[in-house]
Amino acid sequence: MRALGIIIGILAVITMARSLSGTTERIHINDLLLQSTSSDLGTTINHVQFQLTGDEGTNIKCSSSVYKTVPSISIGGTCSKSTYHFVLWPSIKGNNYLLEVFHNKKAGIVFTGISKPSTHCSPEGSTSFVCRQGPPMRLAIRKDV
């Protein structure tokens, strides 16, 4: 848990340093919702969805496929007909998820950034949970070198 905090801090410093170079894009994440299932083997993320605002548009709908029976370490998805996509990385314990966003720009240039969304989870059945985003999240994605 402490290591995750250190990693997030390091990533934030790197992102801030890169933002000074003019190779960043500021995006906003709203209405994040994720569904998960718990078992003796751990938590499986079943579905993720949210709205993204960035250079390519406002309130672009992003979502993953629905995974009911196939557990995955991470879950990825796309954002409507845009060139954004994402990966949600689960935590080992609790709801400390990491959201990594990618934006494929012209000429093979990719911007990427990662952040920990604030979520509040509640049960939805005996082993299912729904987690909703707290405050809107701002994220500076940078040119991947």
Automatic annotation (TrEMBL):
In the record, which residues are listed under signal peptide? 1-19
Per the annotation, which location comes first and is thus the protein's main one? Answer: secreted
Give the location in the cell.
Secreted
Could you confirm whether the keyword rRNA processing appears in this record?
no
Q: Which Pfam families match?
A: AltA1
- AA1-like domain location is 22-144
Gene Ontology CC entries for this record: extracellular region
Which keywords fit this entry according to its UniProt record?
Disulfide bond, Secreted, Signal
What protein is this chain from?
A: AA1-like domain-containing protein
Q: Which organism is it from?
A: Ophiocordyceps unilateralis
